[in-house]
Design a protein that fits this description.
The complex is a heterodimer of chains A (about 120) and B (about 120). Chain A is mostly beta strands and about 120 residues long. Chain A is built from no helices and 12 strands. Helix content of chain B is about 0%, strand content about 45%. Chain B starts with a strand and ends with a strand. The chains are: A mainly beta (about 120), B mainly beta (about 120).
């Protein structure tokens, strides 16, 4: 079985400060991991993904995420937050083991960047 | 290029009525997914297609829900005898393929369904 947890419902950060949005996962095999962002009344937009290789993944809009196998985490980070980064962020996982092509999404974390 | 489109953007219906929700995926994408998103939740898987066939419909909540993709492109999600609990945003996503670099899903804006 696969699962993902986003332990924070909301993250508040001041503009210009670094931000982190947390994600932990559980899989039986190896994970495919994804981050998506959702703006109000919009669909989800792909930010980045980890499949294999370098543990530090760089994505759109200056975001990056670090895959940590020992801690089963895939936290989303950005060195300097912008007010326009305020949105809902979703982490998703798919277990490479088992043959299913269905990802499981977290409940989402609301990021609020204050001017 | 054009992204995933969904119509209608909003649908209000009465309990017991039948509704159809349409999804136009990105051209050339072979995989198509339907999700349901309730307030404060992440997308919940309903069904996905690889080509014309439903590869996995294990997420459909009951037999009132059905989806088709007859020509391997456009898909329609059909809900019979709607109930108030069906109210949610229905999201469609498509991907080039199912695994590795091809499995990134691109989402449409969703259809907001309200059952009165």
């Amino acid at each position: 079985a696969q699962s993902v947890a986003q332990p924070e419902d909301q993250v508040n950060v001041a503009e210009g400060n670094p931000l982190t949005v947390k994600c932990t996962y559980s899989v039986s095999g190896n994970p495919y991991l994804f981050w998506y962002v959702q703006y109000p009344n919009r669909g989800l937009q792909f930010l980045l993904k980890y499949i294999t290789g370098d543990n530090l993944v760089k994505g759109s809009y200056g975001f990056e995420a670090e895959f940590n196998k020992s801690q089963t985490s895939f936290h989303l980070k950005k060195p300097s937050a912008l007010v326009s980064d305020s949105a809902l962020y979703f982490c998703a996982v798919r277990d490479m083991l088992g043959g299913s092509y269905i990802p499981t999404f977290g409940r989402g974390t609301s990021l609020i960047v204050h001017p | 290029g054009a992204g995933v489109s969904q119509t209608p953007s909003n649908k209000v219906t009465e309990k017991g009525k039948y509704v159809e929700l349409r999804c136009d995926p990105i051209s050339g994408h072979t995989a198509l997914y339907w999700y349901r998103q309730s307030l404060g939740q992440g997308p919940e898987f309903l069904i996905y297609f690889q080509g014309t066939g439903a590869a996995d419909d294990s997420g459909l909540p009951n037999d009132r829900f059905f989806a088709v993709r007859p020509e391997g492109s456009v898909s329609t999600l059909k809900i019979q005898r709607t109930e108030r609990g069906d109210s949610a945003v229905y999201l469609c996503a498509s991907s080039l393929g199912l695994a590795g670099s091809q499995e990134t899903q691109y989402f449409g804006p969703g259809t907001r369904l309200l059952v009165l």
